[in-house]
Write a structure and sequence with these properties.
The chain has twelve helices and twelve strands. By secondary structure, it is α/β, with parallel strands linked by helices.
C-alpha cells in the first residue's frame, strides 16, 4: 500500500481538462465564426440558380480548396460527406461494386469499427476479408499483408493512424503492395489529418477518409478523397450534388467549418505539433516515472504527437475514468465506440496486451487547445487515483512484495 499518496479531492466543480481529442475536438473559435453566417443569413441552397444560392456554392468550393490543400490533393478530388464513417463505407462499397470479379478485402486487425465492422458485414455477404495481424507494439506485419494481397483482392484498407494508440502505419508501402496486383488502396486518415503531414501527390492512395470533428470543426461533416481517374460509385442515390458523387443537400455550415479547420491545421501544424508533442511527452514521462507498473501501448517511435495510451496494470480503466471525471479530467479507455463494453479493446487484444493491462488502459489525447497547466494538473492528480484504486484491487501487489 502506498501510504505516501496525497488524497483525492472529493469532486472538483467546473473544472474541465479535456484530453480526449481522439474522440472529438472542441470547435475552434475561428471555425465557429466562419460557419455562423451559413446558419443565419446565407441559408441559400448551393444547387439553386439564383445568386443567393450561388454565393453559398462558391463558399463550398473554397472549403474544398482548403481541404484539398491540407491533403496535398486537387480540389476536384474531394467529396464532402457526413462523417468519417460514411467516407469509409462509401470507399469500401464502391470498390467492391466496381470490381465484382474480385471477392477479397484486406484490412488490419486494428481498424476503427467504421472499417472493422464493415469487414464483418462483408463476410456476411460472402466476401473474404483477411485481417492482417500486428505485433506487440501494434505495428502491422507487412510480410503477411504482402502474402495476403493477391489477384482476388479488390481493396486494401489500412488506417493511416490508429485512434487508440496513435500508431502511424506505412501507407506508402501498403499502397504499393495493393497496386502491384491492381487492387485499390483506401486509408482511414480520420486521426491523421491535421495532426501529421499528408501529401497525397506521390502516394499510392486511391481513396482516403477524414472527419471534421477530429480537427476542430463540428460533428456531422467529413470528406472522402478520390484520386483523379479512380472509378467511384456513390453510396447514396439522389440529387447531383458533389458532382454526382454524394447525393443530398450539403451541410453548408459544416463544410465551410471543415474548410476553415483544414486551413488552420495546415497553417499551424508544424509549430503546434512540437508543442503538443512536448506536452504529451511531459505527461507520459511523468506518469511512467511516478507510477509503478505502467506500460505504454503502441509504438513510441512512430506515433501521432498527441496520443498516449497507458496501461495501469491490475485496475479497471473504467474506475480510473470515473475518478478522473470527478476531477474534471476527460480521457478515454479504448475507443469511444467500445466504451460501455466489458471486453477490452480489440486493438490492444490484437497487440497481445495481457488482460490485466488491457483492462487498465487509458488514452490521453491532447490538442493544440491544451495547456501546460492542464498537463501539470493531470500529473498532480493521477497518481493518487491510481494508488487508491490499487489499494482496493484484489490483484494488485506492490513491486518487490
Ligand atoms: N476512423 C477513425 C480512425 C476514427 O477514430 C473515427 C472516430 O473515432 C472514425 C473513423 C469515425 O469518424 P466519424 O465519427 O466522423 O464517423
Amino acid at each position: 500500500m502506498n501510504t505516501q499518496s496525497p488524497a483525492i479531492p472529493a469532486r472538483v466543480e467546473n473544472k474541465l481538462v479535456y484530453m480526449d481529442n481522439n474522440a472529438t475536438t472542441a470547435v475552434d473559435p475561428e471555425v465557429l465564426e466562419a460557419m455562423m453566417p451559413f446558419l443565419k443569413e446565407f441559408y441559400g441552397n448551393p444547387s439553386s440558380m439564383h445568386t443567393f444560392g450561388g454565393k453559398v456554392a462558391a463558399d463550398i468550393e473554397q472549403a474544398r480548396e482548403s481541404v484539398a490543400s491540407l491533403l496535398g490533393a486537387d480540389h476536384s478530388e474531394i467529396v464532402f460527406t457526413s462523417c468519417g464513417t460514411e467516407s469509409n463505407s462509401a470507399a469500401i462499397f464502391s470498390s467492391l461494386f466496381l470490381c465484382p470479379q474480385r471477392r477479397k478485402v484486406v484490412i488490419s486487425k486494428v481498424e476503427h469499427p467504421a472499417v472493422h465492422n464493415v469487414g464483418k458485414e462483408l463476410v456476411r455477404r460472402g466476401y473474404k476479408v483477411e485481417e492482417i495481424p500486428v505485433d506487440a507494439k501494434g505495428r502491422i506485419d507487412i510480410e503477411r499483408l504482402d502474402e495476403a494481397v493477391n489477384e482476388q483482392t479488390a481493396l486494401v484498407s489500412v488506417m493511416w493512424a490508429n485512434n487508440e494508440t496513435g500508431n502511424i502505419y506505412p501507407v506508402d508501402k501498403i499502397g504499393a503492395i495493393a497496386k502491384r496486383v491492381g487492387a485499390l488502396f483506401h486509408t482511414d486518415a480520420v486521426q491523421a489529418a491535421g495532426k501529421i503531414n499528408i501529401a497525397l501527390q506521390n502516394m499510392p492512395v486511391d481513396m482516403l477518409s477524414i472527419s471534421g470533428h477530429k480537427l476542430h470543426a463540428p460533428k456531422g461533416v467529413g470528406a472522402l478523397y478520390i484520386r483523379k481517374g479512380t472509378r467511384f460509385r456513390p453510396l447514396l442515390s439522389g440529387g447531383h450534388q458533389e458532382r454526382n458523387r454524394r447525393a443530398g443537400t450539403e451541410n453548408v455550415a459544416g463544410i465551410v467549418a471543415m474548410g476553415k479547420a483544414a486551413e488552420i491545421a495546415a497553417r499551424n501544424m508544424r509549430e503546434e505539433n512540437t508543442r503538443v508533442r512536448a506536452m504529451r511527452d511531459t505527461l507520459e514521462n511523468s506518469i511512467v516515472s511516478n507510477i509503478p507498473v505502467t506500460r505504454i501501448n503502441g509504438d513510441p517511435d512512430n506515433r501521432l504527437p498527441n496520443t498516449s495510451n497507458i496501461s495501469f496494470e491490475f485496475i479497471e480503466g473504467e474506475a480510473i475514468l470515473l475518478l478522473l471525471d470527478r476531477l474534471g479530467i476527460c480521457a478515454s479507455s479504448g475507443s469511444a465506440c467500445t466504451t460501455g463494453s466489458l471486453e477490452p479493446s480489440h486493438v490492444l487484444r490484437a497487440m497481445g496486451v495481457p488482460y490485466t493491462a488491457a483492462h487498465g488502459a487509458i488514452r490521453f489525447s491532447l490538442s493544440r487547445l491544451n495547456t501546460e497547466d492542464e498537463v501539470d494538473y493531470v500529473i498532480k492528480h493521477l497518481p493518487p487515483v491510481i494508488s487508491r484504486l490499487r489499494e482496493i484491487s484484489p490483484y494488485w501487489k506492490e513491486p518487490g512484495n
